[in-house]
Amino acid sequence: MTIEKLILREISMRLKAPFETSFGVMQDRRILLVEVVVDGVSGWGEVTTTESPSYNSETTDTAWHIISDFIAPRLIGNEIQNAADIAALLTSIRGHQMAKAGVENAIWDAQAQIGKVPLAKLLGGQLDQIACGVSLGIRETPDALVKKVEEELRSGYQRIKLKIKPGKDLDFVAAVRREFPDIQLSVDANSAYNMKDSAHLRKLDDFNLLMVEQPLQWDDIHSHAKLQSEIRTAICLDECIHNAAHALTAIELGACRIINIKLGRVGGHSSARQVHDVCQRNSLPVWCGGMLESGVGRAHNIAMSALPNFSLPGDVSASQRYWTEDIIEPEVEVSSSGTIQVSDGSGIGYGVKRDLVNRLTVRAKHWNAGVMARA
Ligand code: OSB
Ligand code: MG
For residues 188 and 118, what is the distance between their CA atoms, to the nearest angstrom? Predict the structure, then answer.
């Protein structure tokens, strides 16, 4: 396969409602889309950075820089056998997993289309439905949160995750648990606590939570191992895990009992599959995390979630929860039992609405094999 063209676009999309985490509020998303043309076929990927370096060290602008100045020039015109070979071509670029993932995933989509197979199948996926949960941003009051949970449960979602931060934690979790004693409930701190808070975090043990996600520093696996030995609630690592070696480190240290896999954070489908496999070999369940993606990233998340060890509901929910109009057709829909059907169309299995993407585009750059980059 020849990588003939690469088109990098920044689109601007406004979330229906602001989303608050311990590191800040997001609403106006700046999303990079990558389109590759491989053997005449267009494949699409999404760069899942946030606008500021608050979730991890990348931003929309660092990804634009790394793709423009390093990844696109390195790949354009290359002959490859398999999208799984892309990561090896990019090892001289340290870090920047989200930038790499956006490009690698677009090539996976193209390869699946060339082979006329669903991307989920090309990746080794076996599930034809995936289980869905929702991630709820921090609210003003416990009452407001309880109302939101009720609404999401009515839609059928199988697991509710609450964002927490110091000062907005135990009361909120207690209120939701009191109202809904039997639901699958978890919390996500996005690195808002440290080991001095361990006695406080131990109080979460009262609420029969499925997990507490990434309570401690974004890059500190060792402290999570200490904390896990002091609390009963299962720790799930998100921010800390960038590749399969990190996953193995966390497992061997006892730093978590569950891992959340995000395609962007680990650098694309091939690395995600390696993380999945390490967890499966060690009997750790995984689930698919979300980064408030547009439909393109969401479609990739669905394809990945068909792998067999995705045994817990993911943060992959309906397009409609995020966007007035999503950029794919059909939009992602969730059944009344909280599942998404894995598409059996080829590639990501959803069409990209080019007219809408063009209207949302604020900047674009093209590379053609044999021709210099054009703005
Ligand atoms: O930690 O899972 C997270 C959104 C942005 C950054 C980090 C996270 C999140 C979410 C949103 O929880 C999940 C979703 O896409 O619905
Ligand atoms: Mg998280």
Answer: 32
pLDDT digits (tens, 9 = 90+) for 209-256: 999 999 999 999 999 999 999 999 999 999 999 999 999 999 999 999
Q: Are strands 211-213 and 184-188 parallel, antiparallel or unpaired?
A: parallel
Q: Interior CA angle at 19 toward 272 and 51, to 5°?
A: 65
With H, G, I as helix, E, B as strand and everything else as coil, classify residue 1. coil
Per DSSP, 293 falls in state: -
Share of the chain above pLDDT 90, in %: 98
Q: Which two tokens stand for residue 23?
A: 């590191």
The packing angle between helices 295-304 and 97-114, to 10°, is 70
* Cα of 195 from ligand 1 centre, angstroms: 23
Provide the sign of the torsion angle of the four alpha carbons 304, 33, 137, 262, taken in this order: positive
Rg (CA), the chain: 20
Q: Is the pLDDT of residue 82 over 80?
A: yes
Tell me: the pLDDT tens digits for 37-54? 999 999 999 999 999 999
Known catalytic residues are 163, 262
pLDDT at 370: 81
CB 347 within 8 A of CB 118: yes
Residue 157 beta carbon below 6 angstroms from any ligand 1 atom: no
**Given ligand 1 and candidates 46, 260, 292, 300, which is best to mutate, with the most ligand atoms within 8 Å of its CB?**
292
Q: At what angle do helices 244-253 and 269-281 cross, to 10 degrees?
A: 20
Where in 39-148 does DSSP place strands (E)? 41-47, 129-131, 133-136
Most informative mutation of 20, 21, 300 for ligand 1 (most atoms within 8 A of CB): 21
- What six digits make up the tokens of 73? 């020039």
The answer to whether the CB of 135 is under 6 A from ligand 1 is yes
Helix (H, G, I), strand (E, B) or coil at 208: coil
This prediction's pTM? 0.97
Q: What is the DSSP string of 76-102?
A: TT-B-S-GGGHHHHTTTS-S-HHHHHH
Token pair, residue 202, equals 């131990």
35 pLDDT tier (thresholds 50, 70, 90): very high
